[in-house]
Amino acid sequence: MANIIDGKAISATIRAEIKEETERFYEKNGIRPGLAVIIVGEDPASQVYVRNKRRACEEVGFYSEAYELPADTTQEELNSLVDKLNADDAIHGILCQLPLPKHLDENEVILRIDPKKDVDAFHPTNVGRIMIGDYSFLPCTPAGVMALLERSGIEISGKECVVVGRSNIVGKPQAMLLLHAHGTVTVCHSRTKNLAEVCRRADILVAAIGKADFFTADMVKEGAVVIDVGMNRRADGKLTGDVDFESVAPKASYITPVPGGVGPMTITMLMQNTLTAAKESVN
User: Is 120 one of the annotated active-site residues of the chain?
Assistant: First the structure.
């Protein structure tokens, strides 16, 4: 049976470290790292995320602001708020909760956020810096995956790594981070032929396609490390990942559960990015 990678425990350890570092930073500079979160509309999942981010800020000793805007907010109003936050010295990180209502242009907002305050690492400037390996921030979920691997003592260098999913938020940056860590990386997607065969080559398999229980035991090599980024609901309402945990766990050497694996790490990495932004603001 696989070793279960406990994202809750690792996340709690990292948050405790961030809290200590934040106190040292405050004592030295008299500044609390500040995070502003913008949510437009009343998407229930987004509202849960925003609450969780506010709680995380309190836990690690950050200053935080939340802007809950009505669904009919105009692009001009949203842009104006971003401009105001860009100019606010008390705010070191700006996060606009996606998805936005359809009448708003997400790309315009991403481009508007100052790259030095872009703690989601979605701005093209930060994406480019990740590509060349000279970055300050990393997208939170891929950063969380790397932290889980590192803190679990899993060696990446020289390993065959397969990332299934090519989104800008997870798949593409995840592939780059594994490459920077000297993994040999294959990126798979909906057009990949013989997907199961490619997955069976993986020493480290990252599943990030958003299909419940898609990856089964026959797609996983004996002793592989399986990282499940998926977060789906079954018909009975139960949370599940992209990996069929029950069949894959006996075959893997390490595996992340859903919930309690990658999920808790995402907001923790957001806290890490915000602390980094605050530190860089005084340099």
Answer: yes
